Amino acid sequence: MRRPKILTTLRTYNRSLFLSDLIAGVTVAMVALPLSLAIAIASGAGPEKGLVTAIVAGFLISLFGGSRVQIGGPTGAFIVVVFGVIAQHGYDGLVIATFMAGVILLIAGYFRAGRLISYIPEAVVNGFTIGIAIVIATSQLPDFLGLTVAQVPADFFEKIPVLWDARASFNAIALGTALLTILLIVGLRRIAPRFPGLIVAVGMASLLVIVATLQVDTLGSRFGALPSSLPWPTMPDVSLSRVLELVPSAIVIAFLAGVESLLSAMVADRMIGGSHRPNAELLAQGVANIGSALFAGLPATGAIARTATNVRAGGKTPVAGLIHALTILIVMLLAAPLAGYLAMPALAALLIVTAWNMSEPHKWPEYARGRTGDKLLLLLTLVLTVAVDLSVAIGVGVAVGLALRLSRRSSVESDWRPPER
Fold it and tell me: What are the boundaries of the signal sequence (predicted)?
């Protein structure tokens, strides 16, 4: 079924459901705000692109999606891909690739490809997820340590010597700010799991920087003032040659958006005892990525951590996701200048915590106890993600994984559980 879930839930919608969705939507917006800014910066884009994506794509994913509680927007999984596309093709190339990925997802949803996720080996998903987490964490080291680096290379093995050469510029105050942010994030999560601790942690660390006039870069000092309104939608400037050179990037973006959104919806189903509509979800991701591209935003997908936050905060229907997007829009319209005071080490710490959570360290012992073939497949995908390219890692990983399945003469029915991140 490709019908949006919101049409089903609105039949019995009432005041009680709205109040639950209102509280959850505002709560998850406070989590999404700093994450969207940090993800955009780590991707090599301006911080405002993260807000635009969270607003436009987040709204469309909830409006057209196949899950009751899915929250969409920019996610850490895209950082590696987006950074590479911008470095190779420019930001306009990323916009075109995102638009193309949206079209691919619309086609996949129309042809009911949502169930194909069952053919993707769990080891491949785990491998490229851990690989992405490693790349994200290392990309944040300059701000985390306060290093002065003119430009950090995209290649992992080129990045390490550049960071080592910049060690003389180490800033202990930046490191202290980052560590304080991590302590606040972890502490608030344990003390009050439902509380939007991310924005409080980043805000408190940044406030200390401003009040004590510490020598630490802020969002405003590096990127200037954030815009206080959405841009007008415009069609990307597309040519046949541009489309052909961006096809591989568009396929990878579409693959990640589809897999991540369906994983998130599966996790949400387990949390609420529901059942999502995979093909409607793919269509929603297609609409959302086309919409984000029209506003010059980033690729978007269902966000597992934000979706889980929505459920824990009491979200009941897709209206919570709409409220989440509108809340971020209101903050952008009324309080954009305040974002300029956010400390860069605090945002780097936020992304390093996000990368750690993405890698799901509590599952590593389980991976180690798995079949030898699965362990080798996970390591292969991980190494290719870090050392070569995500598209190569996915292509090789899926091919080898399917070959392993055939060699075991087992059913193609999925035998894995969705991750909890």
Answer: none
